[in-house]
């Protein structure tokens, strides 16, 4: 199985690996600095330069060509982009002992979500302008190069100690051409930052999806907390309509959205952004109003946003080098703090030490980590599923097959290796889910599984991951931070692959 995986990896990604050669040996304590649905990012040291780097580990032991092609798309996108406010792919490394690929990036000490959730941190107006100017500059570059990020949120905005912000995690990104549009999946962007057209099932969209997310980030930085923290798609749309107003009839007719009849409100809502954010700096309101326009065509462009009065009136954006020096803080640190606080509250309650109970509505609301992108979507829309325990950071496992998302297939040929001892002995990863439609499917990336074929079941202790197919009517396995979640150990540990109970 290893040789087959190696052949597949070399065949599809060889041409992408050939321009870069890096040797990274040994994880520094194996510390995970970012954990997502399908991959982990580690802090490591480059033995050639002694430099601390971030390693994004991706597995390809499931032999799914579509997974490799999705990963190839992310690599191609990263190599197309070159901007101070976008992460730079420094190298690609493969392991001789496992079906893993490592993407090498510069290590960034913070992310915006971690800083915003840190106790005692309140951003000033010049600091917010500094962060937003860098974010919009990075988005301007991406959009000018024909790339949609499709998952702008605080944890994907990394910061170094010099105050430089970089847009990261292009796992959901896609190429796009406004003059030659192709249908793309609507199941992208983390729920709190997802624009209404995607919630309504739009497959024809453009830069407006990233600009909506940027508007949410701007309002969140000024408010000190997320502005649209919905728990489900329905609640998210309700929150959006209450804040931004419900769409007019022309909107529904023009976009022809598939879920319009289901989510169209019976009573119209009035737009109330100015009233809701009346304490914000006056110059910020026109920009927020534009970025959070219900109609994506009215959100304009990142270039137009950079020219808004928010950036041209005093107080001006501060220089990145003048930003405060913060202790290392990432979203995962905020989650760990919250978990520890819950543990202490539970212990105090168990000990009966007289701690006063508070109702949820009496507790202060502060910034807190956003949920994993699309963790709840599949259970709300589809019932039948295929479950694979692959850990590729390609979103073919986390999101719909590529026939629902344009621009997947690319030409792909000699890989390089790292020392065997590099592989960390205990790297958890979750089983994931994707949906499929009726009828056999053919895509640019090759044939997919025929959903008309009977569903086969195998015992959970099966070691042949290539043919294991599961079906379930339950929700997809939750993020580990949300409790539960499947876990399959690395093959190099010598353990059998097992899918835990969902």
UniProtKB/TrEMBL annotation:
What SMART domains does the entry give?
Answer: S_TKc
Q: Which keywords does the record carry?
A: ATP-binding, Kinase, Nucleotide-binding, Serine/threonine-protein kinase, Transferase
List the PROSITE patterns: PROTEIN_KINASE_DOM, PROTEIN_KINASE_ST
Instruction: Show where the Protein kinase domain sits.
Output: 2-311
Residue numbers spanned by region Disordered = 392-424, 446-502
Compositionally biased region (Polar residues): 462-474
Checking InterPro entries in the record gives: CDK, Kinase-like_dom_sf, Prot_kinase_dom, Ser/Thr_kinase_AS
Sample GO molecular function, one term: protein serine/threonine kinase activity
Write down a Pfam family by its short name.
Pkinase
Task: Note the Gene3D superfamilies from the entry.
Answer: Phosphorylase Kinase, domain 1, Transferase(Phosphotransferase) domain 1
Q: Which CDD domains does the entry link to?
A: STKc_CDK9_like
Family, according to the entry, reads as follows: Belongs to the protein kinase superfamily. CMGC Ser/Thr protein kinase family. CDC2/CDKX subfamily.
Put simply, this protein is called Protein kinase domain-containing protein
